Amino acid sequence: MTNSVYTPQATKKLYRSRTDKMLAGVAGGWAAYLGVDAAILRIALVAGVFFTAGFAIPLYAAAWLLTPEQPGEP
């Protein structure tokens, strides 16, 4: 039996992207957080707008308001 020591890993934080953005950086920030390509999230968002009769638009707006912008130089 081995004695394992717990080593905490660095926690990822969710931010809106300053560099990978088309409108507000929401998709770029979420893509970086989830480890996927931002284009996939953007396509999913556009599809979501059509398949949910526009319900994805207020969700995007809420994510824009609630997700803090990535820290760094303006």
Average predicted local confidence, pLDDT: 86
Shape verdict: extended
Q: How far do the termini sit from each other?
A: 52 Å
Q: Decide which structural class fits the backbone.
A: mainly alpha
The arrangement of helices and strands along the chain is HHH
Q: What's the β-strand tally?
A: 0
Helix share bin: 40-55%
* Rg, Cα atoms, Å: 16 Å
What oligomerization state is this entry in?
single chain
> How many strands, what sense, and barrel or not for the largest sheet?
none
The percentage of residues in β strands lies in under 5%
Tally of helical runs: 3
Question: Any low-confidence stretches, pLDDT <50, length ≥5?
Answer: none
Transmembrane segments: 47-66
Keywords: Cell membrane, Membrane, Transmembrane, Transmembrane helix
Protein name: Phage shock protein PspC N-terminal domain-containing protein
Organism: Amycolatopsis japonica
Question: Which keywords apply here?
Answer:
mainly alpha; 3 helices; 46% helix
SSE topology sketch:
Layout: H1 26-34, H2 38-51, H3 56-66
Helix pairs in contact: 1-2
Q: Would you kindly provide a written description of the structure presented here, covering whatever features stand out?
A:
- The chain starts with 25 loop residues before the first helix and ends in an 8-residue tail after the last helix.
- With 74 residues, the protein is an all-alpha fold.
- The longest helix is centred in the middle third of the chain and has 14 residues, at 38-51.
- The radius of gyration is 16 Å and the shape is extended.
- The protein is built from three helices and no strands.
- The model has no long low-confidence stretch (mean pLDDT 86).
- It has a domain at 26-66.
- It has helices at residues 26-34, 38-51, 56-66.
- Helix 1 (26-34) packs across helix 2.
- InterPro entries: Phageshock_PspC_N (IPR007168), PspC (IPR052027).
- Pfam families: PspC (PF04024).
- This is Phage shock protein PspC N-terminal domain-containing protein.
- It is a single-pass membrane protein.
- Keywords: Cell membrane, Membrane, Transmembrane, Transmembrane helix.
